[in-house]
Amino acid sequence: MRTSQLAENLAKHVHTISSEEMEMIDFDSLVGDLKDAAQALLDLGRKAELCDKFLDDAKSEIKRMSLAVSRAKGDASALDLTERLLESEGFDYDDLALLRRQVKAEFDRTFPGKPIHQVMENAEGFGSRVGEFKIGLK
User: Is there a contact between 62 and 106 (Cβ–Cβ < 8 Å)?
Assistant: First the structure.
């Protein structure tokens, strides 16, 4: 049963009970809805724990990348700002995703995936300048 439908059913039961119309209460339906609600709450608790783990992993990854960039550049201000943002109360998923993209981009600029000489080979005019420094080639 969908959560919205379960909530509607429970709201109807609450209304019926609060209006003190005891003869109108469908106890079989109430028992079924309460069992479904109990199961939904258990599932929700498991999902909340999983979400917390994913959130902690994402924050940890951002902190590690930011720490590496800060150490490489010798500037801890970006790390401090990142940690403050991650600990702020109003920080939602969109903010986390944006911060992760920005920190990852800075991390990739600081620590390129290819050795710097391979990155430089793609630049125009690089081949003509390399010839000046090669020794022993004809």
Answer: no
